[in-house]
Specification:
single chain, four-stranded antiparallel β-sheet
């Protein structure tokens, strides 16, 4: 009887030990104990770091600094000015008699505004109290409208009198008004300019004529 009881006790002890081993393996998963828990914590930490990185990369574009290109584009759109017709209020006109060619005067119009302006057609000049303006030299028509950026100048020349003395109604005038044409070319627009003339005045006759506005001085004085 004693031996039978001893055998039963050993069997129960072994069975209990086996049950504990099974429970331990179930709790640890692969039986690696603490090492497996560390791997799980590391994996959890990596997931949190990945989540932070994804969150940082998806910040709104509005928070990003402006690049040089985008900043320049914004400045241009805010400061751009609409071009206008050149006239007395946005230009300065100078009238200078020339020695060569003889009996000629050069008109220089400089853009004094802060935006581009256009010199259309030709100057409608009025000496003294004349009731009409002189005709234009058609052959002097430029290939494009004269465009003046701020500070730039355009030119036209005035043939004051016939070089051979054949002109009629010769006279000396001491005042001049220059009127500007618009895109349509019909009449003057805006305000005129009143450039000063030499104190002794300038001599003109009925052969008086003008050139179209030119982008360069050389193109103006060849007529």
């Amino acid at each position: 009887m004693s031996s039978i009881r001893t055998s039963r006790a050993r069997v129960l002890t072994a069975a209990a030990a086996g049950a504990l081993a099974v429970l331990s393996l179930t709790a640890c998963g692969d039986g690696s104990g603490a090492r497996n828990e560390g791997a799980s914590a590391k994996a959890s930490g990596s997931s949190q770091e990945d989540a932070k990185s994804a969150s940082a990369g998806s910040q709104p574009v509005a928070n990003a600094p402006l690049t040089k290109t985008s900043a320049a584009g914004i400045g241009t759109s805010r400061t751009g000015a609409k071009a206008a017709t050149c006239q007395g209020s946005n230009t300065k006109t100078v009238a200078a008699p020339l020695t060569r060619p003889v009996n000629h005067m050069l008109l220089t119009v400089t853009n004094t505004s802060r935006s581009t302006c256009y010199l259309y057609g030709y100057p409608a000049v009025r000496f003294g109290e004349a009731q009409s303006v002189p005709p234009v030299i058609e052959a002097s028509h430029p290939q494009a409208v004269v465009t003046l950026k701020p500070g730039e100048s355009g030119y036209a020349s005035v043939n004051l009198s016939a070089t051979d003395g054949s002109g009629s109604h010769g006279r000396t005038e001491k005042s001049l008004t220059v009127y500007f044409q618009g895109p349509s070319g019909n009449g003057s627009v805006g305000t005129g300019a009143r450039p000063s003339l030499p104190a002794k005045g300038v001599y003109i006759d009925d052969s008086l004529k003008v050139t179209y506005w030119q982008q360069s001085m050389d193109d103006a004085v060849i007529w």
